[in-house]
Design a protein that fits this description.
alpha/beta; 9 helices; 10 strands; extended
Length: 270
């Protein structure tokens, strides 16, 4: 199922190059689980200029559907200056496109009354709300994002002072946000930006309480892996299925587990 603007012409505000872009206007997490992440990280409505690499947000009608939560959200940007009649037509088209993609058993009453959101941020907050994330939690997250931005803009001396003062706020979620920022920058072709954020993240690993705990877990896991390899090597050709299973049980009971994994040259925190 695809409902998108075909051949929309966009003018880059940075280099004034005109180019065609296509954005999926229906995000259905049942058909594409990645659609939720795209919305929450801002990737769903952004395009990149093929000439200069500038990333801009496109104002476009957007629908978000999660059948498991019986959630249907539709956002039509005010800046499009569409009449009420045109807005209702778009809402109807989107709703029908989603309904037609479902089996008869999945077509429930909530589809007849989609929830309209006035802003894209309102749509994002509605998705969080459906996941049980309260406004207070969202506000705390926004403050954390603002602090992260300040941290990235600070010089070395300022950053050291901020790390010392706000050490308790630099936790697992903080590192997860940095990883998302890195991945988003890479997707948008901003290699230098991604590299800088990764450098700051590695600095935080060594200078924060949580980061040092992660490093300690990583070192313990590495030692465990090496120990397993040594035992298996010692077994050699004498290893049996039973002995390997016994070994797996023994090490599965260890508390030395990584809090993250190294993938594609980056640490992904769990």
């Amino acid at each position: 199922m695809t409902f998108s603007r075909q051949g929309a012409v966009i003018t880059c505000p940075n280099c004034h190059t005109q180019f065609s872009a296509q954005i999926d206007q229906i995000l259905d997490v049942q058909q594409d689980p990645a659609a939720k992440i795209e919305l929450l990280t801002g990737q769903a409505t952004t395009v990149q200029c093929p000439n200069c690499g500038f990333v801009l947000t496109v104002a476009t009608p957007l629908a978000y559907h999660d059948a498991s939560k019986e959630l249907l959200l539709i956002h039509i940007p005010m800046e499009l200056n569409l009449s009420n009649q045109e807005q209702e037509r778009i809402v109807g088209q989107m709703t029908r496109a989603i309904t037609d993609s479902l089996s008869m058993e999945q077509r429930k009453g909530y589809l007849l009354n989609p929830r309209r959101t006035f802003t894209l941020q309102g749509m994002i907050e509605a998705v969080h709300e459906a996941d049980g994330v309260t406004k207070q939690m969202l506000e705390a997250r926004r403050q954390k994002v603002a602090f992260l931005q300040e941290l990235l803009e600070a010089d070395d001396e300022q950053r050291d002072a901020m790390i010392e003062e706000f050490d308790a706020d630099i936790d697992e979620e903080f590192f997860q946000m940095m990883s998302v920022m890195i991945e988003t920058a890479l997707v948008n072709g901003q290699q230098q930006e991604a590299g800088y954020i990764a450098t700051v993240r590695d600095e935080l690993l060594g200078k924060t309480t949580y980061g040092q705990e992660v490093l300690a877990s990583m070192q313990a896991q590495e030692a465990t892996v090496q120990e397993v390899a040594t035992v298996l090597q010692a077994m050699g050709q004498n290893a049996t299925r039973e002995s390997i299973l016994d070994l797996a049980v023994e090490f599965s009971e260890s508390d030395d587990h990584l809090r993250g994994e190294f993938r594609n040259g980056q640490w992904s925190f769990l």
